[in-house]
Amino acid sequence: MNAPVLEIRGLDVDYGLGDEAVHAVRDVHLTLHRGEVLGLAGESGSGKSTLAYGLTRLLPPPGVIRGGEVIYHPDDGEPYDVLKLTPRQLRGFRWAETSIVFQGAMNSLNPVHKVSTQLIDVIKAHEPKSTRVSRLARARELLTLVGISADRLESYPHQLSGGMRQRVMIAMALALEPRVVIMDEPTTALDVVMQRQILGQLVELRERLGFSVLFITHDLSLLVEFSDRIAIMYGGRIVEQAPAAQLYKDSLHPYSDGLLHSFPALRGPRRELTGIPGSPPDQRAMPTGCSFHPRCPRAFEPCAERVPVLGTPTGRGDPTRTVACWLHPAPEPVA
Ligand code: SF4
Known about the structure:
Blueprint: E1 4-15, E2 22-33, E3 37-41, H1 48-55, E4 63-72, E5 80-81, H2 87-93, E6 98-101, H3 105-108, H4 115-126, H5 132-145, H6 162-173, E7 180-184, H7 192-209, E8 212-217, H8 220-226, E9 229-234, E10 237-243, H9 244-249, H10 254-260, E11 311-312, E12 322-323, E13 332-333
Parallel strand pairs: 3-8, 3-9, 6-7, 7-8
Antiparallel strand pairs: 1-2, 1-4, 4-5, 9-10, 10-12, 11-13
The structure holds iron/sulfur cluster.
Iron/sulfur cluster (SF4) binds next to loops.
């Protein structure tokens, strides 16, 4: 595995303060490696988007980062904690080192400005010494990079299809050649064919430009196809991490298993679609012990009492896999 580019260590994010606080992200440890596509999956409300907003420090109030570190490893220089950057340093970090593509391109693009203006604004804000001619040339290049004809620079967002708007957002995210691109459900509003086209293109761009991607979605079938590794989140915690192919073939956590049996098999023999009984937990009243136990078909004696710790499962001898489940006791918790 390549060297890490972003390490999330023990991140805790709450909404609100004191006894009323909702613990949306709990003690999350996650590492994104250079050039990798890391998928993050889970149902709505599992804490995926809160994690993305927390690590980029874009959390809207009443979101509060209660603890942990987000260590960024630059190409040159010492690693640093993103959570400790000053507002000025943070402005330099965003877009240039890490960019984020949000859900719903129509809401993210300004409807009253042409695509050219919006792309040029991003370049100008971070490279104020660049000339108008060079900014325009870069905007044309970026649009072509994501498969849109440069003629569309003079279009307004409403003149583009949903897929094109999402591509414009990806072009914007790549404008300053960041090393990390975070994508929060970027293709949810698009049809399945368009989703796959855009993701295929993203993976191809990653290979050409060498950035890393943290791809967040509730659709595990997409991640199985396009990610190198997958992390599964439930009740604000990471409950399993594995290389994508291994997770698909042999998931260890019953929740991952439920997610995998919620969509038809892409290849190989057909399998029964079972889904997951019940609903995601209410973050204001989380179940005791393993938060999945009220829905888990394999729950047993310790599950309702003790919180399982994420670690390398005993006897697997595979350090690339981690799971938090009492079915697979972990001798080496993730630190
Ligand atoms: Fe199910 Fe228990 Fe594992 Fe939780 S710890 S997923 S309840 S078996």
